[in-house]
Specification:
- Keywords: Membrane, Transmembrane, Transmembrane helix.
- It is a single chain.
- By secondary structure, the chain is an all-alpha fold.
- It has one domain.
- The protein is 73% helix and 0% strand.
- The longest helix is centred in the last third of the chain and has 29 residues.
- The chain starts with a helix and ends with a helix.
Length: 105
């Protein structure tokens, strides 16, 4: 009925990578923040922070504050692997987004 906990790791990594890569390409294309005023590190930190703000709050809340309200089939191990997968996806999405932005733009 429920999948293996590794499925949560892979799902989190894929979702994190796709979201982060899209944000990197979009913000580079929109030139936000402007490359005239900010360094490349800041230009990559902004999509990484936005991705982190979108990816991590819900699993962290289910892991800590909303522990009683989560699904009975969701174990702590599942949430841990989901968080690890999203972190790996964020890093991979940054790398993929940089390469995609340099090819497209």
């Amino acid at each position: 009925m429920h999948g293996h906990p590794t499925d949560k790791l892979v799902a989190g990594a894929i979702m994190g990578a796709i979201l982060t890569a899209l944000l990197v390409v979009l913000l580079v294309w929109l030139d936000f923040p402007s490359d005239r005023h900010y360094s490349a590190v800041v230009r990559l930190a902004v999509p990484a922070l936005i991705s982190a703000c979108l990816l991590f709050p819900r699993p962290l809340l289910h892991r800590t504050v909303l522990r009683e309200r989560r699904d009975a089939g969701m174990l702590d191990e599942d949430l841990n692997l989901l968080l690890v997968g999203r972190a790996l996806g964020l890093i991979g999405g940054l790398i993929f987004g940089i390469s995609l932005a340099s090819e497209i733009l």
